[in-house]
TrEMBL record:
GO terms for molecular function: manganese ion binding; metalloaminopeptidase activity. Gene3D superfamilies: Leucine Aminopeptidase, subunit E, domain 1, Zn peptidases. One of its GO terms (cellular component) is cytoplasm. It holds the Pfam family Peptidase_M17. Keywords: Aminopeptidase, Hydrolase, Manganese, Protease. The lineage of its organism: Bacteria, Pseudomonadati, Bacteroidota, Flavobacteriia, Flavobacteriales. Residues 320-327 form the Cytosol aminopeptidase domain. Belongs to the peptidase M17 family. GO terms for biological process: proteolysis. This is Leucyl aminopeptidase. SUPFAM superfamilies: Macro domain-like, Zn-dependent exopeptidases.
Amino acid sequence: MIELKNEAIGGGLILIGHRNVEIHHADDEAASYFKRRMDADEQGIANVPHGDEFTSFSWYTNEGSQSVLLEKARKAGAKLHQAVNSDKISQITVRSLGDITKEEVLAFVEGIILQSYSFEKYKKNKVESSLKEIGVVVDNVDQQLLDEVRNTAEAVFLARDLVNEPVITLNAQEFSQRIIRAGEDSGFAAEVLTEAVIKELDMGGLLGVNRGSIDPPTFNVMEWKPENAKNEQPIVLVGKGVVYDTGGNNLKGGKNMSSMKSDMGGGAAVTGAMYAIAKNKLPVHVVGLVPATDNRIDKNALVPDDVITISDGTTVEIQNTDAEGRLILSDALVYAKKYDPQLVVDFATLTGAAAAITGPFGVAMVGTADDDIKKTLNKSGEQVYERIAELPFWDEYGDLLKSDIADMKNVGGPIGGAVTAGKFLHHFTDYPWIHLDIAGPAFLDSPDEYKPVGGTGVGVRLMYDFVKSLA
């Protein structure tokens, strides 16, 4: 992980500014060169060597909303990292020009760090970023702000690592061990409920999905409760922890099973968010819940027509074993009631229907929280550029889940799959609640600026910014 310091260090000097900013530089030829490059391109990077060191100017237009400008800054930082890494540079100092805000500078630095990630664990010849230190010398940017950026990036890297890890080395038990270590590193408390306890709690959703697995399930409880917490009732985060999804007896076909190690992306997002919240010591009481299992064909796995009983007594007719995430989440949402929560937010790579709506560009949302909470969450989504698309949540979607032999079916047919999944989850809530379907942006087949191939860590920065806004 790149170190951040609130001081000038050796290596290259990085200037960041809006296009057409006036450049003052000791080297008139360098200033003239930067001006010509700006005139030619709306955004870019230009370098001027100075012996063993160099000056680089990174610019972009100042057109658009604050959300757009911050994203331009992140992308500029990502491109800058690619350039310095290509040249094997280990140290740079960032300074700002003109009317660049401190928020843009921090987003620029964030983009540098996020782009530096790569999952090299299983490669014989590992390639890591050459960049080791960034100095930031900008008005109103202090070490505390830089530490916050770095800690939050660490949390994103944690989530990415969890998603990228294959199930052969990250089953439910190992996921729990990683959560425990994350708590030890950041400060949140972690407890793992074993299969015996899960049975005592009658978590029929989690136990039902686990019937086809040779590995027992776990139910992970994380809690950050600082003495200076400003909320009397906790915020509860719930994450889907399906460490691998074959689809069960409704087996996924061919290429549709590839990348299903990412089906615990919601659990990874909650773990990463808890890490960032605790590491940065936000004065907010937050609980994280992650039910974990794989979904396989073996032993006495669920089949369509089975009926299972969730921990609140609700009976569910199984019509599709590949709609398993909502089953394990239902037990977690019931468990969340014990906290009398101020708000519950769940994260899940839940439906292909949501991915078809948002693609990798955003997150699908439904829920019952009031408009002020939704507006605050949307604002955080814009701030970190993990934007939210709220879907209709009409009562008629719930009617599609009616069963002839049980209280509910686990699927609602071809209409509004992302919404009927939300309606299923809603049944198990009696508190303000938001469901975020991250199926679209959680895992990428090709890199996108500061987002790598594989796990993106989506949801971590979103939830950190949201919880911070409530502090």
